[in-house]
């Protein structure tokens, strides 16, 4: 999946949670943690770490609450 598609999906989630009561960032993080694969979350976190160009503020604010991809034995 391309970075542009991940950004578009994350921004759509942020737009939805902006209309809901409570913290949009918390809603974005919960939705992404529950529904995105570890690889998708890792790609989104890499995009945020690279400056987050094109991401909604709620997506960037959600980043610290996203579960990182599990480490493999090779990474340990």
Description:
With 76 residues, this protein is an all-alpha fold. The protein has one domain. 61% of the residues lie in helices and 0% in strands. It contains 4 helices and no strands. It has helices at 3-18, 24-35, 38-49, 57-62. The model has no long low-confidence stretch (mean pLDDT 93).
Brief rundown of the structure:
This protein is an all-alpha fold. It is built from four helices and no strands. It has helices spanning 3-18, 24-35, 38-49, 57-62.
The number of E-state strands comes to: 0
Query: Which series of helices and strands comes N to C?
Result: HHHH
> How many structural units, i.e. domains?
1
Q: Strand share of the residues?
A: under 5%
Helix/strand structural class: mainly alpha
Shape: globular
Q: Biggest β-sheet: count, sense, barrel?
A: none
Tell me the span between the first and last alpha carbons.
Answer: 26 Å
User: pLDDT under 50 segments (min length 5)?
Assistant: none
Describe the secondary-structure layout.
Blueprint (H helix, E strand, L loop, with lengths): L2 H16 L5 H12 L2 H12 L7 H6 L14
Helix pairs in contact: 1-2, 1-3
List key phrases describing it.
mainly alpha, 4 helices
